[in-house]
Design a protein that fits this description.
By secondary structure, the protein is of the alpha/beta class. The protein is 46% helix and 18% strand. It has 3 domains: 2-142, Resolvase, N-terminal catalytic domain (Rossmann fold), CATH 3.40.50.1390; 159-296, Putative Large Serine Recombinase, Chain B, Domain 2 (Hect, E3 ligase catalytic domain fold); 305-541, no CATH class. The strands form 6 sheets. It has a 4-stranded parallel sheet with strand order 2-1-3-4, sandwiched between helices. It has a 4-stranded mixed sheet with strand order 11-15-16-17. A 3-stranded antiparallel sheet has the order 12-13-14. β5 (159-164) and β6 (167-172) form a beta hairpin. The termini are far apart.
Length: 541
């Protein structure tokens, strides 16, 4: 009798452990014992039993149509399919060509209603078994994640995964961590785009973890990964079936091959120790803000140039204004004008002629920087505000309180030695003292930084005239340079709001010493001193 052997394993781990070979050997031994002639072996390595389209299974079905064998020998029903409906379909199709299906766990079964019922029951049990295993595994992983245990052995770039028994943890990969810091520095301080960062890393001969060239998608994942700031997440993504029907690959090894982001409330945070933090939280937040700003001001698919692209908001509904063209003229118009989703609302804010709005904003911005009194007045107000702060602002008072805490600690230790208080009471009181000391020391550090800033502001007033003249000359040079003007406005302006017939401009003007390239540092909002600009102007519609 001519037979065909079919074998399948569903995971790469099973494939590496050669369970497919042991499965095949059992089937071959059974065929040899019964003097069967094996005409062909059909093997699907690493394919899920939930899928019907498997390369070896399709070849078996094609050969069955040609009647190249009389029996298909399979180890058990779940090897043929883990879905009850697919199992019945395959058996029915083979029976149509007078080909029997024999399962090794029941080699003497006959084609009777009872046996068909038993096969169906086995198929249902296999389907149920897989669902049960998946659910138990899912709940087990969620419980571990909620307990603060890392799930998954693939560490992000900059870390290595180290396993101790059943529990693993991250360790910093010093070489990769330096590159992560370099990427954030290029993105935030150097203001390079993702593509420019990839080119810069290639120019410096810095290879990625895999492959030879850096991809923009990999750099995006690095900049968005909160693990570098000390927190990672489990249950962040869910596997779904791919919607890409134009895939080059005909066969897929699993059903759910695409990933989709879950709602943020379903993410399970896992806090990492402070010594595993590669990027400061404030720097990471700045990077996310920069990513959002880059996305809003991206020039992709833009037919016309808009100086204020991504900067204009609607004063009525706070939606972004979009650039539109009407009979050759350019306008800014509220994006909610005809929107009916997610809410059926329409905004009736008037459109603004692009040329008028851009001229008003640019001229106002330049006048504010050239104003000899604006910056000095703002600095004086800021200095007075810091002086009148009601928080603890005297280092001597903080030092006295710290000394009182040291005396209190000494008294607690004496009380414990004399058996006045117990060890538990000592630990409880010492913890309160240490917490108070931590807050006082932080207040002291903040005060020192604040005083340094005040001193720098006072000294900065002496150079304001030189600064104003220098930046004024540079602004005049870029007056006809669209890209330079856009760079300055996008970095310095926070928001331009159109409300009725008024323009509200909110922005930041940095104050840098003349030797620090004021024009290139005009985007800086993270260090040094800055003047906040808020103006309300009429808009000619």
């Amino acid at each position: 009798m001519r037979i065909a052997i079919y074998a399948r394993v569903s995971t790469e781990k099973q494939e590496k452990q050669e369970t497919i070979n042991s499965q095949l050997q059992v089937l071959r031994d059974h065929a040899k014992k019964n003097n069967y002639i094996v005409s062909q072996e059909y093997v699907d390595n690493g394919y899920s039993g939930e899928l019907l389209d498997r390369p070896a299974l399709d070849k078996l079905r094609d050969d069955a149509r040609k009647k190249l064998f009389e029996v298909v020998l399979v180890h058990s029903p779940d090897r043929l399919s883990r879905k009850f409906i697919y199992l019945g379909l395959l058996q029915e199709e083979l029976k149509k060509y007078d080909i029997n299906t024999v399962f090794l766990n029941r080699p003497d079964s006959k084609d009777t209603p009872e046996e068909n019922l038993l096969n169906g029951v086995q198929g249902l049990i296999a389907e149920y078994e897989k669902a049960k295993i998946l659910e138990r595994t899912r709940r087990g992983k969620i419980h571990k994640a909620q307990s603060g245990i890392l799930i998954g052995s693939i560490a992000p770039y900059g870390y290595r995964y180290v396993k101790n028994g059943a529990i693993g943890h991250y360790e910093i990969n010093d070489q990769e961590a330096k590159i992560v810091k370099l990427i954030f520095n290029l993105f935030i301080n150097k203001r390079l785009s993702i593509r420019s960062i990839a080119k810069e890393l290639t120019r410096r001969n810095i290879p990625p973890r895999q492959g030879k060239l850096w991809r923009t998608s990999s750099l995006h994942r690095i900049i968005r990964n909160e693990t570098y700031a000390g927190i990672t997440y489990y249950n962040k993504h869910m596997a779904v079936e791919s919607k890409n029907h134009n895939s080059v690959a005909k066969y897929k090894r699993a059903k759910n091959t695409s990933m989709r982001l879950r709602p943020r409330e379903q993410w399970i945070p896992i806090n990492l120790p402070d010594d595993l933090r590669i990027i400061d939280k404030d720097i990471f937040s700045l990077a996310q803000r920069q990513l959002k700003q880059n996305s809003e001001s991206s020039s992709r698919n833009v037919k016309y140039r808009y100086l204020l692209r991504g900067l204009v908001k609607c004063g009525k509904c706070d939606s972004p204004f979009q650039g539109v063209s009407y009979h050759g003229d350019l306008y800014y118009r509220c994006g909610n004008r005809h929107r009916t989703f997610p809410l059926p609302r329409e905004c009736h804010a008037a459109a603004a002629r692009a040329n008028d709005l851009e001229n008003i904003v640019w001229n106002t911005f330049c006048d504010a920087i050239k104003d000899p009194y604006l910056i000095s007045d703002q600095l004086v107000k800021l200095h007075e505000k810091n002086k009148s702060n009601n928080k603890i602002n005297n280092i001597e008072l903080i030092d006295k309180e710290l000394e009182s805490l040291r005396v209190e600690e000494s008294r607690l230790l004496d009380a414990y030695r004399e058996n006045i208080i117990t060890m538990d009471q000592l630990k409880d009181q010492m913890a309160k003292v240490q917490d108070k000391r931590k807050y006082l020391e932080q207040d002291k550090r903040d005060l020192v930084i604040k005083q340094e800033k005040n001193l720098s502001m006072l000294s900065l007033k002496k150079t304001l005239q030189d600064y104003r003249e220098q930046i004024s000359r540079r602004l005049d040079k870029v007056n006809n340079d669209f890209e330079s003007k856009r760079y300055l406005l996008s970095r310095a302006l926070i928001k331009v709001t159109l409300d009725d017939k008024q323009v509200r401009i909110k922005g930041i003007i940095p104050v840098n010493p003349p030797g620090e390239s004021a024009l290139s540092n005009i985007a800086s909002t993270t260090s040094g001193c800055c003047v906040r600009l808020q103006l309300l102007l009429p808009m000619p519609f």
